[in-house]
Amino acid sequence: MVRYTPGSTPQLGRRAMLRIMLAGAGVAATGGLVACGGGSGSGGDSKVVTFGNNLSDQVPKDAITAAIKAFEGSSGGLSVTINTKQHEQYQEQINNYLQGKPDDVLAWFAGYRMRFFADQGLTGDLTDLWGKIGGNYSDALKQASTGSDGKQYFVPFTQYPWGMFYRKSLWAERGYTAPKNLDELVALATKMKADGLIPIAFAQKQGWPGMGTFDQLNFRINGYQFHVDLLAGKEDWQDKRVKDVFDTWKRLLPFHQENALGREWQEAAQSLQQKKSGMYLLGAFVGQQFPDAEKEDLDFFPFPEINPQHGTDTVEAPIDGYMMAKKPSNPDGAAKLVEYLASPEPQVAYLKADPTAVATNKNADTSGYNSLQKKAAEVIKNAKHITQFLDRDTDPGFASEAATNGLIEFIKDPNNIDSVLKGMADQAKNIFK
């Protein structure tokens, strides 16, 4: 799936990305997506299913189109009308789209973003379908597909993990090994610095990369439940547990690449590719900055343990997939299409165009995976909990203002933690009423 958050649209400026975050999770946008099939129970052709697609770049668009054509060939006479919108426009307009006449099946994101619309009754209940397909997914993926009422409203398609990425050849040359806990991470970073490397590549010009660092530290220190509750406005940003996160980050900041506020993630990734940096905490899309001949040299490890109570049981692995309209024009056809998208074959076919992601169906054929995909699939499979990324796991207004600005202020002055957290707490109280 095209990812509008980290890695998907590097050509967008920060303002555009924040506008997408606001609109994509429910803030009304002008205009609206136009459905091809007149969904929402309009009595459409029983042989036609309409499909809302946000994969507008040519390669992934061709890949999902091929998968849909394969469905048509095995569906017993159904045809699919694909309604493709430029992915930025799609996210900006989805609120009005869902309140109008959406397509029968449509692309979206798991977790908070899915629950936002499910809570408003704007998407179809897929609980019965999950009774058929549930065995193909991990408990963590089911959790990310479940609404506040305990029902399922989403089918996962692909995902990609966040972790500490590095070049295998550089580590072999220097004799580095993956740290198992925070103290070992600090010791490794100290050694890298002594060896003349930037220990941890870092960039924050686009506003979102530091969110990934916060996420890793928060769920490693305080656990999955506190993390999701904090982002949902159920915990206080001035809580000592949050201050512990920033105190830990302050300990690590001297090992981060300097002048991060003036650097984009692509530049930081290039420093990793050029062997100037030893590690980079990012999503698997970091591989986009590596030539094909060097992609097999890229590896990663999950962020190491900080609190033994939580270990490394949580993995940040944003999930892209599909929802069904509340009242599809072709309910039977829509159900068949969603069930098909939950199967291994279309997911594997799609990944031939996007080898930085992995299939979500645990029965997918992974024989064609590169080494990074194999590692990613294993790490995700073993996760007890999966998070989506801060700007997908919280209110978009909080992400774009309080979180973005708070993290920037902290990076500017890590001695100002109390003031930063007070500002974030005050804004959270206004947003999560």
Polypeptide structure, described:
This protein is of the alpha/beta class. It folds into 2 domains: 14-160 and 319-388, D-Maltodextrin-Binding Protein, domain 2, CATH 3.40.190; 162-315 and 395-431, 3-Layer(aba) Sandwich (D-Maltodextrin-Binding Protein, domain 2), CATH 3.40.190.10. 45% of the residues lie in helices and 13% in strands. The protein contains 17 helices and 12 strands. A 6-stranded mixed beta sheet has the order 2-1-3-10-4-11, sandwiched between helices. A 4-stranded mixed beta sheet has the order 6-7-5-8. 52% of the residues are buried.
Features:
about 425 residues; alpha/beta; D-Maltodextrin-Binding Protein, domain 2; 2 domains; 6-stranded mixed sheet; 4-stranded mixed sheet; 17 helices; about 45% helix; globular; Bact_solute-bd_prot1; Carbohydrate ABC transporter substrate-binding protein, CUT1 family; SBP
